[in-house]
Design goal:
alpha+beta; 5-stranded antiparallel β-sheet; about 20% strand; binds adenosine-5'-diphosphate
């Protein structure tokens, strides 16, 4: 059965109007009928009191003369009132004087009321009993009893009921006709709103608007609905735009990803990408072919499985460090080829960051440096051999050369007067040559020792080392009328002899490569990232910037004249020492403007080891 709630609003309105009208009319009709019956009962009471009084008055003579016939005639006048069932006149002693009964009446005449009761009306179930005391000269001479049926009330109620029903029907019809016309006032805007809502939901076209018919609540509803639609339309437009932008961005991202893959696949290097958390999510063909692992397998096992066990731990630690800090990953490791052979690779990875600065991915490459590494190893060995040879040679030569120098000086001194002037000149050459040879051998020995690190690197006070160096140089400083000043210097991890060598060579050069002005040398230090930066500044002749790298080479000198003597090994020693500690040395200068030599020393032994490893790898 169709639920009332589910029927269309138009019909619902009609039903409501009809039910309301009918109920209202029925209630009104019932009220009228009830009111009328109450009024009628009052009217009947008054009417019957008057009637019994008249009949009683007319019966006084018959009662006085005890004339039943006259009394009966009087009572017979009641025939005109069809609802009088019967009427009786009783003598004071309660005996019946006369009676009247309606034709066909079966009810007996009501018994006389008690002598104390004068006039009374008593309603029964379907009738009414009226008693009237008949008086003469203030004395009760008889009682009139009258029985009246109440059919009249029923008739009236039926009549009124019929009228009410008739009214209800007519009113219902009128209400039906009127409401079927008027319901459109409410139903039309609602169905219009429903139509608009339906088409919006079916077509998702938020430009549709409902038509406003009135300024009442429905009109307000339509306004709000339209406002809501325009809000949704704006939001929908924004959303559509955002979606299309996103799609475009996705497309662009897809294109660049494709481009990246194409590039990665066509490159000779092994390329990989990893998530921000460091999980490999792409490897190129070169890497899968080299390792013999499919890209899925590679991702599943992780690259650590392909790395030589001796390199794995350090490699993982370095990778973790990069993931945590976002610093570039640089590492040399041995990567296992499909056939089980390990080859050296230089692995690098760089973090890509999103607009918030978070790492979105890592892009990395593995470059085969096996040959280079082997050559490096060969070179290192050859270098070591050479160094060993240079060390042994200079060490073994030291004694004979010193002898040559000493004896040539002795000969020059003792036989000065024996040989002719030309011989004396030769002897001077010999002495000078021997001295220079001894210096050269000494410097060479110092150079070969410069790169040797022994045991743990201690923490030393630079100021103390500098002071010690300056004490050794006090004669030269005094001779040159020089001034050496310094700022507070830090404690660094470095061999004392090595730092002294560096300070000594740089300060000696500052005194040596002076101009006419008294030399002014200043040493200072500053932090540079994880290292200390120490500088030695002078006011000497300066260096042409084009030679700023060349001067650090062994035997590289810019001055050959007598004024500036030297072997060309001092700066090479400095460079060797500094680089052994993972540092760097360089000069900034212009001719005539003095020179400033800078060198860095990493602050911790670990940092120095890393720097050293990098410098040897690079
Ligand atoms: P040496 O001093 O024995 O010649 P070095 O290796 O110490 O050798 O120096 C190499 C060259 O660098 C020097 O010959 C000199 O030309 C130049 N040089 C070094 N220090 C300075 C300086 N403080 N001012 C100008 N030139 C310098």
């Amino acid at each position: 059965m169709l639920n009332f709630r589910d029927i269309p609003i138009g019909q619902k309105l009609m039903v409501i109007v009809m039910v309301t009208t009918t109920v209202a009319l029925l209630l009104a009709g019932t009220g009228i009928v009830i009111f009328d019956s109450v009024l009628f009962r009052g009217y009947l009471e008054r009417d019957l009191s008057a009637l019994t009084r008249i009949i009683g008055d007319n019966s006084t003579a018959a009662l006085s003369f005890n004339d039943p016939k006259a009394a009966a005639e009087t009572l017979a006048t009641l025939r005109a009132r069809s609802h009088v069932v019967n009427a009786c006149v009783y003598r004071p002693d309660g005996t019946l004087l006369a009676t009247y009964s309606r034709a066909g009446a079966t009810n007996p005449c009501p018994l006389p009321a008690s002598p104390h009761v004068t006039d009374a009306i008593r309603f029964g179930a379907g009738d009414l009993t009226v008693s009237h005391a008949i008086m003469l000269d203030g004395r009760r001479i008889g009682t009139l009893m009258l029985l009246y049926d109440l059919d009249e009330i029923g008739e009236r109620m039926r009549l009124y009921g019929g009228i009410v029903i008739g009214f209800v029907l007519i009113s219902g019809l009128v209400a039906f006709l009127l409401s079927s016309q008027l319901r459109a006032i409410i139903a039309t805007p609602i169905s219009q709103l429903v139509r608009a809502t339906t088409s919006v939901s079916e077509t998702s076209d938020y430009s549709i608007r409902a038509h406003k018919f009135s300024g009442d609540e429905l009109g307000v509803l339509v306004d709000r609905f339209n406002e809501m639609l325009s809000g949704i339309e704006t939001r929908d437009d924004t959303l559509t735009k955002a979606l299309s932008d996103r799609e475009e961005a996705l497309h662009e991202a897809e294109t660049s990803r494709e481009r990246f893959r194409f590039m990665a696949e066509s490159m000779p290097q092994k390329i990989f990408t990893a998530t921000g958390a460091g999980h490999t999510d792409y490897v190129n063909r070169q890497l899968t072919e080299f390792t013999g692992l499919s890209s899925g397998r590679f991702r599943e096992l992780g690259w650590a499985r392909c790395i030589h066990p001796d390199d794995a731990e350090q490699n993982i630690a370095a990778w973790k460090h990069s993931i945590e800090t976002g610093e570039p990953f640089h590492f040399q490791h041995r990567l296992r080829r499909e056939d089980g052979v390990y080859r050296w690779h230089l692995s690098r990875a760089y973090a890509m960051r999103d607009e918030h600065g978070n790492i979105s991915m890592w892009i990395g490459s593995d470059t085969d440096i096996h040959e280079q590494k082997e050559k490096e190893e060969e070179l290192r060995r050859a270098n070591e051999d050479l160094q060993q040879f240079a060390y042994s040679a200079s060490h073994d030569l030291q004694e004979p050369v010193r002898n040559v120098a000493i004896y040539s000086e002795l000969v020059a001194m003792r036989y000065k007067n024996v040989v002719d002037p030309e011989g004396q000149k030769y002897l001077e050459f010999l002495t000078e040559g021997g001295r220079r040879l001894a210096t050269l051998i000494n410097d060479l020995l110092a150079y070969t020792r410069a790169g040797v690190l022994e045991g743990d690197v201690p923490l030393i006070d630079c100021t103390e080392v500098l002071k010690h160096t300056l004490t050794g140089l006090c004669e030269a400083i005094r001779e040159n009328d020089a001034a050496v000043t310094y700022d507070p210097l830090p404690e660094i991890q470095m061999g004392e002899t090595h730092l002294q060598q560096v300070f000594q060579n740089l300060i000696v050069n500052s005194l040596k490569y002076r101009n006419e002005k008294p030399p002014r040398v200043h040493i200072s230090a500053a932090r540079r990232g994880a290292a200390w930066l120490i500088s030695v500044q002078d006011n000497g002749i300066g260096i042409d910037p084009q030679y700023k790298e060349k001067i650090f080479g062994v035997f590289k000198r810019l001055h050959r004249d007598e004024k500036y003597t030297g072997t060309g090994i001092g700066l090479a020693i400095c460079q060797r020492v500094v680089e052994r500690y993972g540092g760097r040395i360089w000069v900034e200068s212009r001719p005539g403007e003095g020179a400033t030599f800078f060198f860095t020393i990493p602050q911790s032994a670990a940092a120095s080891q890393t720097a050293k490893a990098e410098s040897s790898a690079g």
